[in-house]
Design goal:
The chain is an alpha+beta fold. The chain folds into 2 domains: 11-38 and 127-153; 40-124, Sandwich (Immunoglobulin-like), CATH 2.60.40. It has helices spanning 12-36, 129-149, and strands spanning 40-45, 52-61, 69-70, 76-77, 87-92, 100-109, 114-123. The strands form 2 sheets. Strands 2, 3, 4, 6 and 7 form a 5-stranded antiparallel sheet that branches. The chain has a two-stranded antiparallel ribbon with strand order 1-5. Helix 1 (12-36) packs antiparallel against helix 2. The longest helix has 25 residues, at 12-36. The chain is elongated and about 70 Å long. The two termini are 33 Å apart.
Length: 153
């Protein structure tokens, strides 16, 4: 049988420590996730889409341009028309932090003609460290702040 001490009580400091620790853990998890799973979001907008079936997004390592691969598994189907364009985005989760890539957007027509539209270079930075540091600061602060308010008896 567990007995509770008569001197034990949950104070505001306990809840403050719990809150700050929870915020710290959240930031640390988000930072680790950003570090382990970097991604690139490629967005483009068309003005019009005459005879456009869809788009493919190609990726290669920069600056060598070796190992060019199609990033999208399936064709990104056109949403626009001959009088109206559309906005598109694709998230590439198959990248590594610290590397650079070249992305090439290709347009596929109804006649299966492929046209290279635009090429961009992207550098994947090591992200996540600021969030991890913020999380650690919250964790450390959770033990310092309550002790500052403690009165000597």
């Amino acid at each position: 049988m567990i007995r509770r001490s008569k001197d034990f009580k949950i104070t505001r400091n306990f809840w403050l420590v719990l809150l700050l620790c929870s915020i710290g853990i959240f930031f640390i998890i988000m930072g680790i996730d950003a570090y382990i799973h970097p991604s690139v979001k490629v967005q483009w907008t068309t003005a019009t889409e005459v005879d456009v079936l869809g788009f493919n997004l190609m990726r290669s390592e920069y600056p060598s341009n070796e190992g060019i691969v199609q990033v999208n598994k399936d064709l990104i189907l056109a949403k626009g028309s001959s009088i109206e364009g559309a906005h598109y985005q694709f998230v590439d989760n198959e990248v590594s932090a610290g590397k650079s890539y070249t992305y090439l957007l290709q347009e596929l027509s109804y006649t299966l003609e492929i046209t290279d539209l635009e090429k961009i270079n992207v550098e994947i930075n090591q992200k996540g460290f600021p969030a991890i540091l913020a999380g650690l600061a919250f964790m450390i602060g959770s033990f310092i702040v309550p002790n500052v308010n403690r009165q000597k008896t």
